[in-house]
Amino acid sequence: MKKTILALPLLATMAFVSFPAWGQEAADSTGADDPLCCVIFGADAFVITVDGLAEPQGNNVYSTVTVKAADRSSIENTLRTVPGLQQFRRSDARSANPTSQGITIRGLGGNASSRAVLLLDGVPQADPFGGWVAWPGYDALALGSARITRGGGSGSEGSGAIAGTVELFSQDVGNLIELGAAYGSRNSVDADLLFGRELGQGQLTISANYARGDGFTPIIESQRGDVDRQAEYEQAGIAVRYVAPLTDNTELQANVRAFTDDRERGFAFSENHNDGADASIRLVNRSDTGWQWSALGYVQIRNFDVSFGGVAADRNSVRRVFEQFNVPSTGLGARFEVRPPVGDNVELRVGGDWRRTEGETNENFFFLDDDTPRRSRNAGGSTATYGAFVEASVQATEALTLTGGGRIDFWTIDDGFRREIELINPFPGSVRTDAQFDNRDGTEFTARGGFAYDATDQLALRGAAYLGWRLPTLNELFRPFRVGPDATAANELLEPERVKGAELGLDWDSESVSIGITAFYNELDDAVANVTLDTGPGLFPGVGFVSGAGVFRQRQNLDSIESKGIEIDTEFDLGSLVNNLSARAAYSYVDAEVNASGDAAAVDGLRPAQIPEHNASASLLWEQENGTGASVSLRYIGNQFEDDQNSRRLDDAFTIDGRLAFAVNDRLLVEGRVENLFDARVETAVSSSNIIERAFPRTFWIGLRTKIE
Question: CATH number of the domain that 310 lies in?
């Protein structure tokens, strides 16, 4: 029996948090359907639902966490509370470089491309060019819930799920107008709008968000120079969703959204800009007695530009060293699934999917002292995957669920190129590099399966094994890049990553306590990583000159990354002590190790970059139905290494957040919040010259929210 206990909203620190907020469900293991989650506002309620096909019967055999949404909070920082789920860097979308914000789970990291698949109402969300995630684009959405499945081999959800799957689901909002606004430290502003109306026989939802701030200075105070300044940000988005019935059992879902994201990294020539627009159409048939099916088509459009500055050793001067002035990319795809009626105790899923990505980067580099680029680069290509899957789940006995399935994927890498030309005398326009890379293709077979057994009414045992794979991104294949003095070459010969893994878990679920424990083992073969090959000064293939302060790296396939560990999720309903009081605690331990040979032999036996061993969070929440309440949240992140050679360590960090809210009446809520109460230094990066960056410092917020029906 599943149970949902709403937990703290505090770690969702980006947006104004109002009514009973993002909560978390322990590892799902009992096979019962998810309960509907109602959000109470005064005397009324609206219901959060999932609008796709019902959750698959076999999901309860895997380590799954369901996060429920009842406010307009930031999904990025909310997901950080899930044990083992992390981004490449610790900083969030207010200060991080957007290209560092890929997600992974269970220590299967190594670079900034996502190794966990992110889906929004079934649509893949990773950037078509680089595989990272544009998190500010989700703050405008009216989200109802998120389901995180740890472990690879997603089967029906498409390829790419090396580490797991994160599914976001839109919210049905009913007829309402909801407005929220908050003001925070360093002249920060966050505002959002949610508008819902019945239109014809359907439901129209319009949602929007705006956020800006003067930001903070990322470099720690003791190392700052004249060039260091506050890292400003400004972000906005809008989304429109229309859902309407076509027949008694068939529903049309249409979604359109757009976002824009401007950030600076805290010194001149460090600005970046990211725009995006998505559209999708999905048909869902939920017949009670006959065939069930869904069909989805979508398009993603992205454009990105970023500049990099070279800062002098004394940090008193800076000059532009590189700029990506135009990085357009497109993702196209389709998916279908059929569930034929095969018996009361059997669920059969059959389907297929297709995804194509194409994009290119346009760059200027080797800048002279007068901010004039000496060379220009154009690189890119396209990839495609074509997959088919079948999966069956059987309720073998009242207590035992069995599930298993497989998929086959055909992949292609086409039209890869890299072209570099001189821009200034003595040979302007002369071609230095004009490489056309051979097209490649291949076939991948993957599978997953498992069991769940209800030993008692309260105790369930489960186990699963899986195979998965991921195709390298266009960014990894074709685009070299620089971070400060360090340069990394692309590698058009990268092979797909392949994972095999297994897990065992148990779940205890009583009236007031839920505990989930999972032990896991993963081996990621041909893991793509940025491998250090040499140090400057010197000229190196694919990147050119590297100064004496920098290192030369290349993207390469490591032999493997082995990751094993344990995840613990606990929730407590403390209503017997104090009405509406609940608590949550979660912990993950990850022991990850690189196996490498050849050029990468120097990193053999080391920990993958950016992977902590320990991650823990805890929260205590008291919340009345009208929104009045208080909460406190604690989070610990263990130390991790910045680089593949484990020579630069990021220290561990412990943060505390807090919140107080008061409902003035049924329509108005006042809230005060603080994030990072004791201003802990959360280190996010350390350069080869030991310059340290940090995440957001202590920040206070005050806000208002109103709702009109």
Answer: 2.40.170.20
